[in-house]
Write a structure and sequence with these properties.
The complex is a heterodimer of chains A (115) and B (109). Chain A is mainly beta. Chain A is built from no helices and eleven strands. With 109 residues, chain B is mainly beta. The chains are: A mainly beta (115), B mainly beta (109).
Chain lengths: 115, 109
């Protein structure tokens, strides 16, 4: 499986500021995915990032709040903008591989606390 | 209705016993199904994938899929304390995964 490096691993941020999370993959992948895992809850897909096109956002997530870049086939960033305490979560980068290209593998996650 | 539902747990089993985890999904078109294990403070780790009806075994893990009943299960045989974790069921639809809420399993030594 791909090796996915995500950073920072954790951060504590002031409300109203923004944080950019980076995700680097050791192989070229068409799609990269960003998830949020709120405390004690399961994973929710934020958006799908394709190289060369705008990210596709899931219901409840908007580009102004979570802008995503995908400059090449091995790298993506997710920015959490104008943060509030409700944004305190773990953010996970993922790629999909396997015979049907649907097996998801995750980076180590970014634990964000907004104060 | 939630897209993916799991038995809520927590589930406590003695060491050496079988842990049984269940998952139902709402979209009949889904074709790929997964079980992930997540240790506290860690990211999810894929332990089983299943695409066809029936059973799939990998070591102490067996996944069972019944598309007609829209049901996926995971059996963990000879449970070990290291199996204590949250298990997430995931269902794929159009290359996107939907995850269940997870079932926390504790294996008692």
């Amino acid at each position: 499986s791909a090796v996915i490096s995500q950073k920072p691993s954790r951060d504590i941020c002031q409300r109203g500021t923004s944080l950019t999370i980076q995700c680097q993959v050791d192989s070229q992948v068409t799609m990269m995915f960003w998830y949020r895992q709120q405390p004690g809850q399961s994973l929710t897909l934020i958006a799908t990032a394709n190289q060369g096109s705008e990210a596709t956002y899931e219901s409840g997530f908007v580009i102004d709040k979570f802008p995503i870049s995908r400059p090449n086939l091995t790298f993506s960033t997710l920015t959490v903008s104008n943060m509030s305490p409700e944004d305190s979560s773990i953010y996970l980068c993922s790629v999909q591989q396997g015979s049907m290209n649907t097996e998801a593998f995750f980076g180590q996650g970014t634990r964000l606390t907004v104060v | 209705q939630k897209e993916v539902e799991q038995n809520s747990g927590p589930l406590s089993v003695p060491e050496g016993a079988i842990a049984s985890l269940n998952c139902t999904y709402s979209d009949r078109v889904s074709q790929s199904f997964f079980w992930y294990r997540q240790y506290s403070g860690k990211s999810p780790e894929l332990i089983m994938s299943i695409y066809s009806n029936g059973d799939k075994e990998d070591g102490r893990f067996t996944a069972q899929l019944n598309k007609a009943s829209q049901y996926v299960s995971l059996l963990i045989r000879d449970s070990q304390p290291s199996d204590s974790a949250t298990y997430l069921c995931a269902v794929e639809l159009e290359y996107k995964l939907s995850f269940g809420a997870g079932t926390t399993v504790t294996v008692r030594a």
